[in-house]
Amino acid sequence: MRKLILVTSLLLAVHIALLFTRRNAKAEGKETSSVRIGIVLDVGGRGDKSFNDGAYAGADSATRMLGSNIRFIEPGEGADREAGLRLLAAEGMNLVIGVGFIFTDDLANLAKEYPNTAFAGIDYALATDANGNVIPPPPNVAALKFREEEGSYLVGALAALVGHSKKVGFVGGMDIPLIHKFEAGYRAGVKKVCPDCQVIVQYAGVTPDAFKNPGKGKELALSQYNQGVEVIFHAAGSTGQGVFEAARATNKLAIGVDSDQNDEAPGHVLTSMVKGVNTATYDAISRVQNHTFKGGIYSFGLKEGGVGYIYDDRNRALIPDSARARVEELKQEIIAGRIKVPSTR
Amino acid sequence: MNPISFGTQMIRIAVPYLFAASGGVVAERAGIVSLTLEGFMLSGAFAAVLGTNYSGSPWVGVLCGILGGLIFSLIHAVATIRYRADQVVVGVAINLLAIGVTRFFLKLFFASSSNSPRVAGFGGNINAAGFDNPLLWLGLIVAPVMAFVIYKTPFGLRVRAVGEHPDAAESVGVSVKRVRYAAVALSGMLAALGGVYLALDQHQFTDQMTAGRGFIAISAVIFGRWDPIRAALACLLFAAAETLQIQLQGSHAIPSQFIEMIPYALVIIALAGVVGRAVPPAALGKVEA
Questions:
Q1: Which residue among A172, A255, B88, B217 is the one 20 to 30 A from A316 at the CA level?
Q2: 3 state SS of B110
Q3: For chains A and B, what is the number of CB pairs under 8 angstroms?
Q4: Do B250 and A74 touch (CB under 8 A)?
């Protein structure tokens, strides 16, 4: 029995030790500001070529341009997310940022415990009351939201304009309202330029595993490509790696998400729907630095440069000029408010 | 729905289950609980990508993957056989350890906490639908081979003996520990191949990419009543359900939540004795012996 306890506790100790593999990244500002900023990254961490790297990039430019003093924490699974935020708040950081909707509840709770600290949550999920009215975040929390549906609308239009089969696909990760925003915008964009196009929508699952299952993503994409779909937009985290793999295998096209994913399958990535996580992060930091920080809802869409799509030397050959012109036209209409993009399906 | 695309997709989805379930059957028939399949698969997947990345050859990757599974299975074996630790507790710890270790080395070798660079793999012919991958064919024959090993070879007889009645086996001169070590090691290598297939098919490792497949494989072992062929058929059944879900999802004919619970619901049905009595090996999970 003693041996059992020994072995088990040894294994658990090793495991816990590995979970806390934190990167003690430190800002190397030329002249460090007295304002201190702490950022807790989402699961996935740095090197995800997406969300976390976006936040890191925004913080990095804040370090260079504003001399911010930034500390990062990269948590492992589960509960130490909250511990990370708490640690930074307790250390007296002026601003604590949680990267990802998963931090929502923890931020709301900590904001009450540390009323003098500013908090910001990227993709902060706003709750609604019984009448469907949005409940605002606590007064010292900035909810940094993106209008993903607007960027998705544009890539949907592009997918329909570039494909010739009247069928376009969508692969979502977990079947939740946050991902439905992408789907709704995408669908509306497709229908705008091609009313008789069919949008095939599939989700990888109903648990958080659905964002980490490239094997499933590949099979979903293969089945769509086999049905005649030519372009698939994924909003599925690393499950999307499987979508790119399927695009390579069948010589079709895929659309990346969150950041420019061209490198995942060069020649098969039509474009990427990018989220300006870096812009939002930088914006929040600079507000704290010039003492203009206020809690509330900050929404980043096409108008604010918070979302967009990639068009550069690497994918120009895949996009005909006429398609590009049409999409730019739609973009201006959305910015001008003449097109309202739905955010629910 | 096209029957050919249905069949090929079902088989591609089933391959990781087939490898892992075969491994699970061997270990459990020897009396060791196989909650660890998920961890073995994950470590195999990572080791395969590591080996392929540095050698350029997927075959070296396959060998490294097998080695990765072997290392984890030996940790499991030492803890449960030598130190007689509770097999379920160690099993859970092994799975968590595999997640932590793969993520740690992912960062160390590839400076990312989410995915590795792209590596070489097998096949790639557009028209082959994945059937130009030798691991897929290996996956299809692994269950019959394991059935032969378990029922027709002296080793198999010993495995069954130590799983049913270790004292009797010991009394006729069979080393219970040695047989169990071998069975757990074999299960680690087989399950790892499931992870290897998954990783090389994706040409990269992504964090926690096995996504619960090891648990589906355990479900198949139980639903198949600890018989390699029936477990393999259970794997194909679960894969068929998943394929059905993929191909019907667009039409919203069946809620996807419902299809996702099929393997687990079937296991409960199997354990409740609805489809014949599910009797585990008598010494399964027993610490003494």
A1: A172
A2: helix
A3: 141
A4: no
Domain boundaries, chain A: 21-146+277-300, 148-274+311-335
pLDDT at B270 over 80: no
- Chain A residues with CB under 8 Å of B246 CB are 202, 219-220, 223
Angle between helices B228-248 and B213-223 (to 10 degrees): 130
The verdict on A2 touching B (C-beta cutoff 8 Å) is: no
Tell me: pLDDT of A21 over 60.
no
Strand partners, A69: A36
Q: What tokens does A287 get?
A: 């507000």
CA Rg, chain A, in Å?
Answer: 21
Give how far B136 is from chain A: nearest CA, Å.
Answer: 14
Task: Tell me the shortest Cα–Cα distance from A136 to chain B, in angstroms.
Answer: 32
Taking only the tens place, the pLDDT of each residue in A196-252 is 999 999 999 888 888 889 999 999 999 999 889 999 999 998 899 999 999 999 999
Q: Work out the minimum CA distance from A248 to partner chain B, whole angstroms.
A: 9
Choose the most confident range, by mean pLDDT, from A13-17, A155-159, A292-296: A155-159
Q: Helix (H) and strand (E) counts for chain B?
A: 12, 0
- Select the residue of B75, B94, B208 nearest A212 (Cβ to Cβ): B208
A55 lies within 8 A of chain B by CB = no
Which residues is A255 bridged to in the sheet? Answer: A233, A271
A167 Cβ under 8 Å from any chain B Cβ? no
- Whether B206 and A250 lie within 8 Å, measured CB to CB: no
**Average pLDDT rounded to a whole number, residues A138-157:** 92
A206 CB near a chain B CB, below 8 Å? yes
The whole-number pLDDT of residue B180 equals: 95
B177 pLDDT band, cuts 50/70/90, is very high
Q: Which fold has domain A21-146+277-300?
A: Rossmann fold (3.40.50)
Q: Does domain A148-274+311-335 have CATH number 3.40.50.2300?
A: yes
* Cβ within 8 Å of residue A307, ≥6 positions away: A146, A147, A148, A150, A151, A273, A274, A275, A276, A300, A301
- A12, A46, A51, A213: best to mutate for the B interface, most B CBs within 10 A: A213
Task: Give the confidence band of B287 by pLDDT, cuts at 50, 70, 90.
Answer: low
The yes-or-no verdict on residue B157 having pLDDT over 90 is yes
Whether the predicted pLDDT of A3 surpasses 80: no
Using an 8 Å Cβ cutoff, are A95 and A117 in contact?
A: yes
Q: Is the full-model pTM beyond 0.90?
A: no
The topology (CATH level 3) of B3-271 is: ABC transporter involved in vitamin B12 uptake, BtuC (1.10.3470)
Q: ipTM of the predicted structure?
A: 0.89
pLDDT in tens, B109-123: 988 878 888 899 887
Distance from CA of B132 to the nearest CA of A (A): 12
Which residue from A173, A186, A183, A181 is spatially nearest to A238, judged by alpha carbons?
A: A173
Nearest Cα residue in chain B from A47: B112
Confidence of residue A78 (pLDDT cuts 50, 70, 90): low
Chain B: nearest CA to A296, how far in angstroms? 32
Amino acid at B173: G
Within this chain, domains A21-146+277-300 and A148-274+311-335 share the same CATH topology: yes
Nearest to B45 by CA among A214, A243, A19: A214
User: Which B residues 115-134 touch A at CB under 8 Å?
Assistant: 115, 124, 126
Interface probe with B: pick from A6, A15, A46, most Cβ of B within 10 Å:
A15
Judge whether residue A16 has pLDDT over 80: no
